[in-house]
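Hey team,

Sharing the G2E3 ligase run so nobody has to redo it. Sequence (114 residues) first:
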Amino acid sequence: GCERSFHLPCAARGQCTTQYFAHYKSYCSDHSPEQIVEATPEKGTYCLICTDSVDDRKSYRTMVCPACKHAWFHRDCIQGQSLCAGLCFQCPLCRDREVFMVEMLILGIRITLR
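Structure output:
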């Protein structure tokens, strides 16, 4: 396994992923989990939360809903949505909860238990 270590505040800046469940694993940018869903944003696709354009592919910064494959958003935007929604967190487009929440947890999106 990877032997890299980092401070938690530095981890986000370095595109590291921390999973906030079970064993609270952390991954460096080279070994972070990636979305396996087959989807590519069309030209002109924007974040459903901030309405700014998203990257032209899935990345650490740009994510897609694994359920509908049509909702694109920035990591920081969906993290903010998650902290506000708590256990009511869902895809902002298709409103899927189960598949969406599991994927977001794996990708390091923190979900508050309230």
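The chain has two domains: 1-33, 40-114.

Ping me if you want the raw files.
A.
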